[in-house]
Inverse folding.
């Protein structure tokens, strides 16, 4: 599935909660993106910026991503609640009150890069853009960081666009 095709975005967002959620903001301007990147210390993947310009953050309908190994969530996937907006206004935006600073400073999550999505565990595991091997201006992979397993890091996708393409509805996994 190619990123940018309608199939990648089909049923991505929870249509009932998308606009009213604490994750959503207006699409970011070029200046907004530069300001957020400067505050975070990382260049965001172009696919993330493109998605934010189409729809900036929200709760997900396709709310799970397969994993190659078990996590504290499940044997074969992780739940994903929402994607953070590129902004500061919404609580669950990259630089909002439930954004990057919270996970690094209050929760003690490892400094792998940018925490951009949360899970149903209420903070005990998170989804991040992992810049450890590509540096701050590279194209990061997407990882699951699991506090319950000693902050174990599990790669979910090679790129942000692969992560989006890999999201499925959690109900597709057997109990």
């Amino acid at each position: 599935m190619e990123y940018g095709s309608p199939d990648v975005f089909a049923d991505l967002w929870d249509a009932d909660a998308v606009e009213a959620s604490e994750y959503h903001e207006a699409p970011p301007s070029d200046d907004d993106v530069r300001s957020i990147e400067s505050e975070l210390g990382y260049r965001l993947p172009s696919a993330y910026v493109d998605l934010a310009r189409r729809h900036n953050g929200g709760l997900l309908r396709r709310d799970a991503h397969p994993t190659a190994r078990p996590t504290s969530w499940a044997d074969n996937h992780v739940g994903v609640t929402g994607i953070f907006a590129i902004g500061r206004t919404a609580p669950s935006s990259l630089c909002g009150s439930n954004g990057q600073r919270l996970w690094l400073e209050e929760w003690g999550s490892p400094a792998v890069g940018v925490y951009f999505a949360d899970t149903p565990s209420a903070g005990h595991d998170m989804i991040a853009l992992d810049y450890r091997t590509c540096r701050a201006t590279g194209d990061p992979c997407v990882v699951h960081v699991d506090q319950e397993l000693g902050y174990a890091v599990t790669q979910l996708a090679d790129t942000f666009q692969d992560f989006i393409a890999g999201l499925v509805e959690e109900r597709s996994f057997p109990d």
Summary: The longest strand covers residues 113-118. Strands lie at 58-59, 64-66, 77-79, 82-83, 113-118, 125-130, 141-146, 152-157. Residues 79 and 150 are 18 Å apart (CA to CA).
